[in-house]
Amino acid sequence: EIKLEVESDDRKTYYLKIHAPWEVLGTFADVLKIKVPFKASDIPKAREGSLNWLTRPFRLPPDIMSSEPDYFTAPFDKRKADFFLIKDQETFFPPSTRNRIVYYILTHCPYYKEDRKEKDKTGIKRLLSNSTYTSAYPLHDVRAAFLKSSDQTLCESERYHLYKHWARFLCFYKEQPLNLIRKYYGEKIGIYFAWLGFYTEMLFFAAVVGVICFVYGLLSYDDNITSKEICDPTIGGKIVMCPLCDKKCSYWKLNSTCLSSWQAHLFDNEGTVFFAIFMGIWVTLFLEFWKRRQARLEYEWDLVHFEEEQQQLQMRPEFELKCTNKRLNPITQEMEPYLPLTSKCARFFVSGATVLFWTCLIVACIMGVIAYRLAVYAAFARLMKDSPTSKIQLVGSLINPQLATSVTASCINFVIILILNFLYEHVNKLTTKMFMFQFVNYYSSCFYVAFFKGKFVGYPGKYTYMFGSHLRNEECAPGGCLIELTTQLVIVMVGKQLLWLHFNSGRSHPEGQYSRWEQDHDLQSFSQFGLFYEYLEMVIQFGFITLFVASFPLAPLLALFNNILEVRLDAWKFTTQFRRPVAAKARNIGAWNEILNVVAILSVVTNAFIMAFTSDMIPRLVYLYAYHPGEEATMAGYINNSLSVYEISDLRVNNRPDEEENPAWFNANITTCRYRDYRYPPGHHRQYTHTMQFWHILAAKMAFIIIMEHVVFVVKFFVAWLIPDVPSEVKARIKRERHLVQEYLHTYEVEKLKMQMSQSFCVTSETTSLLPSTPDKLDVLSERT
């Protein structure tokens, strides 16, 4: 049913209202095999536990959480309409199902004349692309003005309830009304918010453990002998370090890194090892418990056998028109379009070449950032040597060449990430390829700091240079590169969230006396890739809190705060800023599930390597248990043990600082400098080659990686085996429903057959009672004959 409206303020915009009556809804519900209730559920709900009162403050009213009783469902059959629980035809199909059916009809409806063969003229999408229509959207069930109204008689709508109990930030501690979200927006959006809410709940436990580890670092501050030695004027103040760059970098004293060594201890301590192992187990629990939660939603939302109807419902008509090749589907015995192998290979080649080009572009940008790091360090060192900022109390010690280089390089890297994201998102939308691009784009700089910086430096007199240039490879600070990796993570995560908040600020819409469809038209359109970017953002965040969490235990806490805000802000956007999207079904989170599994496995490897090669934990443990002086295990003397000696006179001319760069305290009496490595001192018959301690530490690092990976993977696989993907209660309900559907359909058919037979018997009996007159007539006729 179609009605034309001309009610716009400009008198130029025409609105075509489309309504599907019961006959149309019933017909296409039959075609699409949409499940509808046929019997109230007889399975009792689980009883509340004795401790459930603890969760009552976080619950929503029962009528909001479960607006309808539980039903057993079966695919709709219009011929058996009396089999289903149809109390009111107007409300039998929920709004999400109604607009989904209408959109299915619109996407498959041709608009060419019967005598012409322009079969590509099909569907509303083509009419939108050629600007015949400017937009097509389902209507919200109430005007936006009513959302803040106090008149309960006007505001008893699903949109109002979603706004009141879901979209307001004051409800941040409440559970989400998932059934109402599903009913209003459809299963695809509902499953996204279910996953996001579950992910946020699990982040709470990771955040608590991360805070405990951070607090442990704070409380063990005074027991950090290594930092005390660095800051001690009689130890770190007398250790002269070799220049960190050629020509423009001077000799420096170890105690100048006092503050950074204390900062590094907050994140590089014994608790970090425990937290890395815990996160390896946490990510397994998260994925396994989500599978159970997802299985429960699949049953409750009638998505258990969704694949069959998905092909019919989501088959794109434009794909059917472009594909001239067809083949017989062995299941449905119907001809369906398909792409031949040659076309698939060609598309795969083009797609792969595109991804390879963008990946190479990212690598080139990262190499540029690395070159920036190497080039500007000397400049910062020269500028800050006599800078007035170095005299500032408290702040002066924070401003040093290492920090300046790290922060500016991280900011430049973040800008590059944003630019490349903007360019690539206009090229490709495919989930896996887009994530591969984002993976390289977001994480490449973190991988460089974690696994490459400071690993290929060489030593004084034989430094390594970037691709044979004059740019010397970067060194880590005496405390390691872990604090710089932490800085990188903080800048990217915080910067990303600040930018997200800026771009997600809402628009105000006038609430004049104009129609609801005009108000909805003024809202933002929710594109078909809207949920794609929501998932992508969360999965990238998931990577940050799992791949590099060993360097920053507070990452889950930042992610938790972000997600609490994200849920309510997304809810607010859906209810007030976006047009109502077309409802779509989805059984699960799709390809993102596999991506999360891959990230989870990779996170175990990355965290093991971070603890082994980026953290200073293993060298300290080796010193504590194998190389400490005296009989008592102590960390005293570790700094002197971890620094090798180099004869200044052996330095090459191009490695030596210019005379004007040397500090005032440097004189000819200083003949040696120290550098971070384990090499024999000058004068030794194997001078400047690695000591046995270096090989012992390397062996300990490899052993730690193997042990940590095996322990975490064994626990992961044991937990995955121990926790079934589908709860036993859900399995029982599925079997019960399958049995009831067969039983009730059989009973229904038998009763219907009995009724038909009884009606037929009545008609036959009435006919039989009239038959005696006929034989008499026949006898008379025969006698006459």
- Described by the principal axes of the CA atoms, the overall outline is elongated
- H/I helix tally: 27
Strand content: 5-15%
* Unreliable parts: 311-315, 387-396, 770-785
How would you portray this structure in words?
This protein has helices at residues 22-31, 62-65, 89-92, 95-108, 124-129, 152-155, 158-167, 178-185, 187-219, 225-231, 258-267, 270-300, 306-314, 317-322, 341-385, 401-424, 431-451, 482-503, 516-521, 530-547, 555-577, 591-614, 617-627, 638-642, 692-722, 728-769, 773-784, and strands spanning 2-5, 15-18, 35-40, 71-75, 240-241, 252-253, 326-328, 335-337, 458-459, 462-463, 643-647, 672-676. Mean pLDDT is 80; it is low at 311-315, 387-396 and 770-785. It has a two-stranded antiparallel ribbon with strand order 1-2. A two-stranded antiparallel sheet has the order 3-4. Helix 7 (158-167) runs antiparallel to helix 21 (555-577) and helix 8 (178-185) packs antiparallel against helix 9. Helix content is 56%, strand content 5%. The protein contains 27 helices and 12 strands. The chain is elongated and about 120 Å long. This is Anoctamin.
Labels describing this entry:
mainly alpha, elongated, 785 residues, two-stranded antiparallel ribbon, Anoct_dimer, 27 helices, transmembrane helix
What's the gist of this structure?
The protein is mainly alpha-helical. It is built from 27 helices and twelve strands. It is elongated, with a radius of gyration of 35 Å.
Write the layout of secondary structure elements.
Elements: E1 2-5, E2 15-18, H1 22-31, E3 35-40, H2 62-65, E4 71-75, H3 89-92, H4 95-108, H5 124-129, H6 152-155, H7 158-167, H8 178-185, H9 187-219, H10 225-231, E5 240-241, E6 252-253, H11 258-267, H12 270-300, H13 306-314, H14 317-322, E7 326-328, E8 335-337, H15 341-385, H16 401-424, H17 431-451, E9 458-459, E10 462-463, H18 482-503, H19 516-521, H20 530-547, H21 555-577, H22 591-614, H23 617-627, H24 638-642, E11 643-647, E12 672-676, H25 692-722, H26 728-769, H27 773-784
Antiparallel strand pairs: 1-2, 3-4, 5-6, 7-8, 9-10, 11-12
